[in-house]
Design a protein that fits this description.
With 334 residues, the chain is an all-alpha fold. The chain has helices spanning 2-23, 36-58, 62-68, 71-96, 100-122, 128-148, 153-172, 176-200, 211-235, 240-246, 249-261, 268-309. Helix 2 (36-58) crosses helix 9. The radius of gyration is 22 Å and the shape is globular.
């Protein structure tokens, strides 16, 4: 009973996290007249304060000393901090300039880009079905480029920056809260310096638009930290395959908001491109479930064979065979 309750709590936490990320386009327009860079600087600055409070409550400090003694990890975290800053900044600009649908496309194609980067940088081998999914994704980009009259650079930049961020996180191998603390710490001084520079020029909206506006800008840190904490709670309670499906909630919500709430245009070519992306993701998800089921069957057969030969007790677990290429793990959405 306790296990079922834990799984339900994890499922609720995961759904809440991705739903919040999916609905965040409703938040950024509330911060106008602040510009995108000012909003980003406030997000970086206040996020550090909120994650430090979370670490203080959880008493998780030992990792800091270990990290300081590893310059290689610090370098990777700096790259991660720069790429997530680009991702966050472009996403905020996109939402506040009428490109919510194109931004949502970036997170739809992110799993395909992540797989491609695994092949290029980690030496992973793709199964035939994964090649089909990646090829379909490339066809979708071509269709959308024709429809837009230009490459969908917002989508591609968001997808590649977030995939690069995920690659750095994979190499660093740190918890979500800890890595976000390190990343926001790296960007804290540049963000704070920019805000002080704006204030000195009299161009900051933080103190000139009233207390409510200032509170909204400060809450950008809360909007960043709360979904991440919920995601962390889900990650330890529900299967990875479940999180992999939940991650599509965020771009689905963003897409619906872009079409229904922000009334962004969806000409036939754009529908065709999105349809190809959704087809690629369907193929990718089906292949992931098929491979996971096949690996479970093989692992169970291996355990039973070992138990019959007396090599392992029946309750022991043999490691599952690794697939040709790992599936992209669900990453926290920015």
């Amino acid at each position: 009973m306790k296990g079922i309750d834990e799984q339900r709590a994890g499922l609720l936490s995961g759904f809440s996290a991705y739903a919040m990320w999916g609905l965040v386009p409703l938040f950024w327009p509330l911060l106008k007249p602040a510009g995108s860079i000012e909003i980003l600087a406030h997000r970086m600055t206040w996020s550090l304060g909120f994650v430090l409070l979370a670490l203080l409550a959880l008493r998780r400090w030992s990792w800091i000393g270990e990290l300081v003694r590893q310059p290689g990890k610090l370098g990777l975290l700096t790259v991660a901090a720069v790429t997530i800053t680009i991702n966050w900044g472009l996403y905020i600009w996109s939402v506040n300039n009428g490109h919510v649908v194109e931004a949502s496309l970036g997170y739809f194609i992110n799993p395909l880009v992540t797989i491609a980067m695994g092949v290029l940088f980690l030496g992973e081998r793709l199964r035939p079905v994964q090649w089909v999914a990646v090829g379909t994704g490339l066809a979708a980009v071509l269709v959308l480029a024709i429809g837009y009259g230009r490459p969908p650079w917002i989508s591609l930049t968001l997808a590649f920056s977030f995939a690069t961020y995920g690659l750095m996180k994979k190499k660093v191998n740190m918890g979500g809260l800890e890595s976000l603390t390190a990343e926001t710490a790296v960007m804290f001084l540049p963000a704070l310096g920019y805000l002080l520079w704006l204030g000195a020029r009299g161009e900051s909206s933080f103190a000139s638009e009233g207390l409510g506006h200032s509170a909204l800008l400060a809450s950008a840190g809360l909007v960043t930290a709360v979904p991440l904490i919920l995601f962390g709670a889900a990650a330890i309670r529900v299967p990875l395959s479940t999180l992999g499906l939940l991650q599509y909630l965020a771009p689905v919500f963003q897409f619906i908001l872009g079409v229904v709430y922000f009334h962004e245009a969806m000409p036939p070519a754009r529908w065709a491109g999105f349809g190809l992306v959704w087809l690629a993701l369907t193929v990718l998800t089906w292949d992931a479930f098929r491979t996971a089921r096949r690996n479970r069957v093989r692992a169970r057969a291996a355990r039973e064979a070992a138990a019959r030969e007396g090599a392992l007790p029946r309750t022991s677990a043999a490691p599952a065979p690794r697939p040709a290429a790992e599936e992209p793990s669900p990453s926290p959405h920015p």
